[in-house]
Structure formats: C-alpha cells, structure tokens
User: Fold these one by one.
Assistant:
Number 1:
Amino acid sequence: EPEVTQTPSHQVTQMGQEVILRCVPISNHLYFYWYRQILGQKVEFLVSFYNNEISEKSEIFDDQFSVERPDGSNFTLKIRSTKLEDSAMYFCASRGPGPNQETQYFGPGTRLLVL
Amino acid sequence: RKEVEQDPGPFNVPEGATVAFNCTYSNSASQSFFWYRQDCRKEPKLLMSVYSSGNEDGRFTAQLNRASQYISLLIRDSKLSDSATYLCVVNFGNEKLTFGTGTRLTIIP
C-alpha cells in the first residue's frame, strides 16, 4: 500500500538555525499538507499546497516558514530561524484523486527538537 | 471559531467491553468528518470516515448527528490492540483538518 514518507525521523538543532524537513507524498496525490503536534497537545494545521502554490495557511505559518515542491516527488518544509517553541512533531500529509479523495494520509513524522 | 471538542479521558476499559466516545464540533456547515487513531509518538491513521447515515466497519461504528453537531464512535468487543488515542477530526469546508485533543483509551486484560 502506498504511503507518505518523511525524513529525517528526528532532528536536533540549535535555536536560530535553519532546518528543512522532507516529505515524499503518495505518488498520484495532488494536495499536500504540513501539520505539527507539540508534545501533549492536539495536531495543528500549518499549510496546504496545491498546484505549486500555498492554498491555505494558519497563523502559526509565519514568515519563518516556507514550503516547496522542488521536484515531482519531494515536498519540503523549511524553518528559517528555529525557536525553542518550534520543537514538535511535524507531519506531512497528502490526498489525491480516487474514491477516498477527501482522506488525508499522514507520514510518520519528523520529531524536531530545538535547543 | 471552528473547534472540535472531545473528552480527553483516559478511558480504562476491560477487554471485551463496549466503549463509546463522543465529539462535538462548532460549525453546522462542516463538510467531512473522520475518526483517526494515533498510537503513542506515531502519526494519525484514518480509522473511518463518518457519514450522515452512520457507518460500520467490523467492530467499529460511527454516527453523525448534524442537528446536534456531534459525532460518535462505538467499539464493540474491545481488544488490547485497540489501546490508542482516538482523534475526532472535522473538515470545515476548507483545505485543513481540525483535530480534537483526542480521547485516550486503554484496554485492560
């Protein structure tokens, strides 16, 4: 069964450093998302991406964040200058055409720790 | 404000018992409803979509009450492997999913 993959599984960084989180969505999917989950809290939407542009973003997704689809398979989330409060699990998700087109499928996540 | 509310639990239930969770949502124009399951430190995984007519998948039954704006999940004959956090998730008609805090379920042998 096709699945969303994410790398790295864990990332430790110093405050102020840039990080790039990588995702490979399911191959025929057209809509891509990033969510985050701070430890002990609910999953929160960050951004959605379709047709090579952001379709919606939350108030969390400020100027420090950016997304890119650099090629036909990868979807990345960049945090330009990390803060302590960026420590969280970051999930990529995708959805696409087909009978379950409303369903978003999540990757295993990247656990980011900012020191 | 578009919100999804769940009882966080924990629910500690003996193996074989039936357990039910409810969830309420704030916007009557909401379009899609889901139950996801999340194991500790793992990603959310779709358990089932929830339809107005109600739907069943094996031991799991989901119901939607649009008039009262709540969604329910019933698990029959619970098994140890059902121990997880159950996330109520709503699409309010835009691109994003809005998650509840989740209800933690532990099945006791």
Number 2:
Amino acid sequence: DTEVTQTPKHLVMGMTNKKSLKCEQHMGHRAMYWYKQKAKKPPELMFVYSYEKLSINESVPSRFSPECPNSSLLNLHLHALQPEDSALYLCASSPGQGGGGYTFGSGTRLTVV
Amino acid sequence: QQPVQSPQAVILREGEDAVINCSSSKALYSVHWYRQKHGEAPVFLMILLKGGEQKGHEKISASFNEKKQQSSLYLTASQLSYSGTYFCGTEGWNNNDMRFGAGTRLTVKP
C-alpha cells in the first residue's frame, strides 16, 4: 500500500476553474509538504505544514492555497491557474527535521488549458 | 537555498562505480539522497545528519563533510536498476523543509 496517497492522479482544468488536490499520509508523520515538479527539473518546495504551523515559499503565487484539516491530511486548493502551472504536484510527509526521509505520494499530473 | 549537484549526467556500464556530489553555501542540519525514475515519485535512499549519523535502507553509501558542507553519494558495482535521476536535498538548521539540487541523471548500460 502507498503510505502517502494523492488524488486525483490526473487533472485537467480550465483557467477559470477551482479545484483541489488531496493528500493523506498514514505514517504518523508530523510534517507534510507540497512540491511542484516540471519536466526534467527538481521538485520545488511550495508549502510546509509542520507541527501545526504553515510555512509558505514566498515565490508561490496566491492562486495556490494549502489547507490542513488534520495532521494526516493536506489539501492544495487551486483557482485561476495559468498554463505555466501545468506540472506534477507531489505531496510528501516526514517525521520532522532530521528524523528520517521524506515519503512522497505518486503525484497529481495537472494540465491547465 | 538550492544545493549544487555534480555531475549533471553519468553513463556507466554494469559493475562500474560512480560518485555524485552535493554542496551548499549554508550550514546544513542534514543531507538527503533520493532516486527518481521516469514517471515516478522520488524515493528516499539515505539521510546524513550533522554529527555523523546516517539513516537509510539501501546498500548505497554516502559521506557528509560538515566543515565543507558537502556530501557525496557512492554507487559501487552499479546495476541496471540504479538508472534514474539522483537528487540531493538539504535541510538547514532553522527550518523544517528540504530543497533539492538540480539532479544527476545516471544511466547504467549492460
């Protein structure tokens, strides 16, 4: 079983749509993350939710907004996206700083048309 | 701040060795290593902590030079399954997040 589950696996949305990406971890980890990955590039950190505190990469536009309903769920709300936002969105969880590796979900492949 | 990785790409024959390097201009709390195959998510290989602790689950070795803020990943007697893109990730002292290097594309040929 995948210990970090992301849904949906694929999403196509128009620039006026509102959608959400969902992530759930079953590992008891205290930190969760959203990364964005373009083809042949490394994952770029977007948001960190750690010990009930949200940290934001300041370069992320406001059309992306995270939500953490509880310690095992992390959602990413999308609205008014641009075609350049098309990418693989990866969710990850970890035990916390230095506590071990990050476990990634299989990702959501997002296409903005 | 993104760590610097080298080389960008490596091509090996089965059984050959490779070294991938990662460095940072900032003081590091930990260095992570991940492998990502095409169309898949990154998979954790190893974490190295300041003070020499090492946590991982595969038979791949790594080192962390705390004075130079550098880490190296050692792949010995490479197998076809080692092919993929290797990323180092670094955590600083004051934040609970990880930034990835640009990646090293490793190709192992028969």
